[in-house]
Amino acid sequence: MVAEVVAGVVLLLAVVAETVHQRRARRLAPLAFGMGVQPRLWVVLSPWIRVVALSALAWGLTSLLIVKPKSFRPIGELAPGKEQHIMIVLDVSPSMRLEDAGPGKKQTRQERAREVMRSLFDRVPMNQYLVSVIAVYSGAKPVVVDSHDLDVVDGILGDIPLYQAFKAGDTQLLEGLKEAANIAKPWNPRSATIVLVSDGDTVPAQGMPKLPASVGTVLVVGVGDPHQGSFIAGRQSKQDAFALRQIATRLQGNYHDANLHHLPSQLIATMVQRGEDNLQEPWSRREYALLAAAIGGLLTGVLPWLLWRFGTGYLPGVRKVKLVI
């Protein structure tokens, strides 16, 4: 409010000053423009330009004087609340320990999932991200939430038998997605990426969780051979690409078969771009004050020169006359 009062006082004083100046300039017009010569049309606007420029300069400088200074952080350090989030919903069911994954079909599905996530971390600016892992089998349990330590995350993705923390039963991927949605609720809009890593599951016709506004991207990553199955617990198990693609479609996300190829760079670039958009801070009073002070100061300083150089076509002095005999 103080800046607005100061700008209003400067505006009033500038209007009074321009009115007095205009009366004096009218009497001296023949000296400036010559007898019968008028200034250029844009000169009529110069008093209003000066009034607006002085008011903007006063408002900008006063605002900069009273607003709270902005603290700048070291490169790579984010302001609180501006972090991005990667939430991995990891299938830890016993079928993930079958060896039919990777280009040579010699990796377990869990090892392939770990390798794919390592590739993702290598291509994403992880200093801007916090990582969470939710283990899902017959239920869902958060293992780590908002961790900076990729070694801890990598260890969780390794050969830890997390399925032993659950009762035996069918894999409930939707429970993992529900848990992810609950954790992500308080985060900033579009600041989270959910990565579901699984070899597939039966998807019920209803019950797909509604994701909060904080989730900007959903990636469904399939591991395991999608063509030839392996036997476990008396049944054949293979990557259920149809079910995983259905989950991705219903969540408006993307499905990728990572059994042979890592996540495509274009998909990762889209995720990173959304993260960068979220990091952009909206303009505050400080930025508007800087802009107003810069424009006001520039116009105030350059206007006299513009009036002198381009205000009139009248050139006082003795003209040289070339005689032709």
Question: Can you give keywords for this protein?
Answer:
single chain, 325 residues, alpha/beta, six-stranded mixed beta sheet, 17% strand, elongated
Summarize the structure.
This protein is an alpha/beta fold. It has helices spanning 2-27, 29-33, 46-66, 109-122, 150-157, 173-184, 241-250, 265-279, 285-310; strands spanning 84-91, 99-101, 107-108, 129-136, 140-147, 192-198, 215-222, 230-232, 235-237, 254-257. Strands 5-4-1-6-7-10 form a six-stranded mixed beta sheet, sandwiched between helices.
SSE topology:
Elements: H1 2-27, H2 29-33, H3 46-66, E1 84-91, E2 99-101, E3 107-108, H4 109-122, E4 129-136, E5 140-147, H5 150-157, H6 173-184, E6 192-198, E7 215-222, E8 230-232, E9 235-237, H7 241-250, E10 254-257, H8 265-279, H9 285-310
Parallel strand pairs: 1-4, 1-6, 6-7, 7-10
Antiparallel strand pairs: 2-3, 4-5, 8-9
Helix pairs in contact: 1-3, 3-9
User: Mean of residue pLDDT?
Assistant: 83
Strand order of the largest sheet: 5-4-1-6-7-10
The global form is elongated
How many angstroms separate the termini?
Answer: 74 Å
DSSP strand content: 15-25%
DSSP E strands, number: 10
Radius of gyration: 34 Å
Supply the helix-strand structural class: alpha/beta
Oligomeric category: single chain
What pattern of helices and strands is seen along the backbone? Answer: HHHEEEHEEHHEEEEHEHH
Low-confidence stretches: none
Please give the share of residues in helix: 40-55%
The largest β sheet comes out as: 6 strands, mixed
Number of helical stretches of at least 4 residues: 9
